[in-house]
Amino acid sequence: MRIGLLTDGGYPYATGESRLWCDRLVRGLPQHEFDLFALSRSADQEQQGWVRLPDRIGRVRTAPLWTHEEDTRHPGRPRGLTGRLATGLGRSYGRRDRRCFTAHVTALVEAVRAGTETGPESGGADAGAASGLFADGLYGLAELARERGGLRTALRSETTVRIVESACRAPGTGRTVHSATVPDYLAFTAELERALRPLSLDWYDEDGLGAVDLCHAASGGAAALPGLLAKRFFGVPLLVTEHGVPLRAHYLAAPGAELGAPVRALLANFHGLLASEVYRQAALITPGNTHVRRWQERFGADRAKLRTVYPGMEAERFGAVGEGDDDGGPGTVVWIGRIEPAKDLIALLHAFAEVRRAEPEARLRIFGAPAQGAESDTYLAHCRALAAQLFPDEAADAHAEGDNPVTFEEIGGPEVPDLAEAYAAGGVVVLSSVVEGFPISLVEAMFCGRATVSTDVGAVVEIVGGTGLVVPPRNPRALADACVALLRDPERRARLGAAARARALELFTVDQNLAAFRGIYLDLVGQAPARWSSPADPRDPAGPPRPFATPPEAHVLGALPPEPVSAGARAPRVPSWAVAAEAVCAGARGAGDGDA
Q1: pLDDT tens string 472-498
Q2: Is 9 left (phi over 0), alpha (psi -120 to 50) or beta?
Q3: Which end of the chain, N or C, is more open, meaning fewer C-beta atoms within 10 Å of its C-beta?
């Protein structure tokens, strides 16, 4: 089976999300061939290069979503639009193309404008109308891009800006969008072109996405957009996997973006409509946890199409810690993760001050990944200053050196060379975040057999499942009480740690993840109708596609002669998994003739 793996800012690049998961998937399913279609997110990501790809990846096609200087279809060809506005659609567009482009962009922008009042959670007729209008505009532009060889210049033209302006000024528009000015129109037009850039790629032919048996998008949003077009043009079934929610990430990042409120509102509407269309067209959606699943259902995902598949993680590296009898530092609380405001280390430090009042010998070890960016450096400095204020250096007597019960350390240092030893350093592992998706550090702590105290955010309750203590976020008192309860009860701590390890090994390993997708691939391709060059069966042009229309006998020795094809009809497309069988059969027949 040939799988088209669709990624956005991840695999095969050395940096990016879902990179490890994609690599494990490709390497763990050797019975399938993979074609990789990847979108890159930054020049730095391009410069970092690729990871070493396994042999079972046949072709790799990449396209940037971050540059304005080059055409994504022809990376070496400079375009006339470089940071400025194109004045028109260009001479290459005839009158019919101009009318079509204007109609499709108008439909799409009108749907985006109306998204504020007709969100997917409303479920009314207006919401359905907006979704239908969005789909008409999106697929109309895709058809035009396929015919005209791309739409980048057209989407950034004055024509598009005027359409955006008219939509924002239309009666009934929400106050935020209605307040947009000319800079907002220009900014949204640029962002819209970037979001729709996959429409202008040269991936949609019989040698590209038309040659795969199944499209598997490693995330929603831009990564799934080529999958939508593969289904539209070739009938390829689409599988969408989301370990996080791109739409949620967009909402969280929007207030900090250098864009005005009207642009952020329009982009939120666009991404919401795109997510709804992806969920509607997908044959199956595999959220990484129930937290993601709730977001998908809110934006129109059919429950019958949803199947939760937890992301697989390597348990072997934590095996020695989990199977050992060492309880680490029984009076030590450990925190591990990226040091950033969302992790709420401020609340953790205030909670630990309460822990120290109850347990004077307790210690807190904070293991953070190396700080990245000015924001992380500033937050780390703030946390260090607060720790020094709350916990002055203490000494046992007048002749001893003072010591602080809170330490900030980096993984890979001389005392803690690897991640497993960091988890082994304490008896209780704590997670204090106010925002989380699927916290990997919590699963790693469970693999290590550690009792955990976590805040109730994201998928925490689903992960822990009764094997750890969960408290409300932004509540230092509750966090402190839970930590003290475990520090004072070693038997309960050991019991919860053992249960946590058993749960993690049952649900969150790589083998569990691969087994799930091995079955999903076979189910989806087995249920998909036979795909022909035209929508109907060439032997019955008036009828619908027929499942398994090509009999198995057609691909083995002694194959039945092909049925005659009516004049003007194109020959049926042979699935990729049958090509090798035909070649083997032909070779066997040739060898038999030679022997005779």
Answers
A1: 999 999 999 999 999 999 999 999 999
A2: left
A3: C
Which residue(s) pair with 21 in the sheet? none
**Nearest-angstrom CA–CA distance, 591 and 570:** 31
**DSSP letter, residue 532:** -
> Of the candidates 540, 581, 533, which has an alpha carbon nearest to the alpha carbon of residue 559?
581
Across 90-127, b (16+ Cβ under 10 Å) vs e yields eeebeeebeebbbbbbbbbbbbbbbbbebbbeeeeeeb
Half-sphere exposure of 176 (CA within 13 A, CB side): 15
Q: Is 41 left (phi over 0), alpha (psi -120 to 50) or beta?
A: alpha
DSSP letters, 415-456, are S--SHHHHHHT-SEEEE--SS-SS-HHHHHHHHTT-EEEEES
- Let me know: does 174 contact 117? Beta carbons within 8 Å: yes
Asked whether residue 471 carries a pLDDT value surpassing 90, the answer given is yes
Which residues sit opposite 313 in a β-bridge?
A: 509
CA distance 305 to 313: 25
Question: 476-487 vs 490-507: helix axis angle to the nearest 10?
Answer: 100
C-alpha to C-alpha distance for 37 and 13, rounded to whole angstroms: 12
pLDDT, one tens digit per residue, over 188-217 is 999 999 999 999 999 999 889 999 999 999
What is the average per-residue pLDDT within 116-130? 59
pLDDT at residue 451 tops 60: yes
Scan for tokens 């005209």, then name that residue.
Answer: 148
The DSSP H or E segment spanning 4 is strand 2-8
Percent of the chain with pLDDT over 70: 76
Go through the chain and tell me how many residues it has.
596
* pLDDT score at 568: 44
Report the mean per-residue pLDDT for the chain.
82
Query: What letter would DSSP give residue 341?
Result: G
Which H helix or E strand runs over 409? strand 406-410
Tokens 């693999």 found at: 447
Q: What is the β-pairing status of strands 214-217 and 2-8? A: parallel
